[in-house]
Amino acid sequence: xxxxxxxxxxxxxxxxxxxxxxxxxxxxxxxxxxxxxxxxxxxxxxxxxxxxxxxxxxxxxxxxxxxxxxxxxxxxxxxxxxxxxxxxxxxxxxxxxxxxxxxxxxxxxxxxxxxxxxxxxxxxxxxxxxxxxxxxxxxxxxxxxxxxxxxxxxxxxxxxxxxxxxxxxxxxxxxxxxxxxxxxxxxxxxxxxxxxxxxxxxxxxxxxxxxxxxxxxxxxxxxxxxxxxxxxxxxxxxxxxxxxxxxxxxxxxxxxxxxxxxxxxxxxxxxxxxxxx
Length: 277
Description:
- The protein has 277 residues and is α/β, with parallel strands linked by helices.
- Helix content is 39%, strand content 19%.
- Strands 1, 2, 3, 4, 5, 6, 7, 8 and 11 form a nine-stranded mixed sheet that branches. The chain has a two-stranded antiparallel sheet with strand order 9-10.
- α7 runs antiparallel to α8.
- The protein is globular and about 55 Å long.
């Protein structure tokens, strides 16, 4: 049994060709495009992919539309981002799982190797991070408006092989533009949750990485100097300094993202009180 593939795109001409090249083995590729203004659609069709276009509103809505409204040729769907490459060992592992009718899982997660400045920044990127990448659309759903999370009532499996993530291939300006948008949403959510969101302490020992992250995030929201603490944690405690200059730069960038969230949260709070910025 083969696997279908769903790729969500918006102006991904720099990335999509390499992604599709690593998916030549797949006979059912769907590109869900958000009306790109570059050559994304042209590249997708030239590679034999089906193209479906829908205006982007939120990640949650787009992913739900992709899995629930598009018909796929196969029960299992692989969901890489356009800036990801699928190695041969990952392909073979997924195909073997899809061909096994005894599997009860509704989805499988995979780790990735995050590439920056020509190298895998293993320590700086807090490896391993598990991302859902292979799903049964009829058995899963997404939740949360930002960093949409795939959930199911059925078990979740984990793949042994990695995918390769070229998250900076579109340039640093694109990275900052994306995180500028993310930080605005995070600031909005921070005010909705309150300055001291409830801590689900059970998350610290949960087997679900998303639950552990949510708990740590709630704890971090109560700490002063959060951007600085994030840098110290990634660069010193997690060994980001061993990734050289690339690791140092990446850790500083993530700390700046935390600072954007802090500043925008304060801005929204002052505006809500009728105070000047």
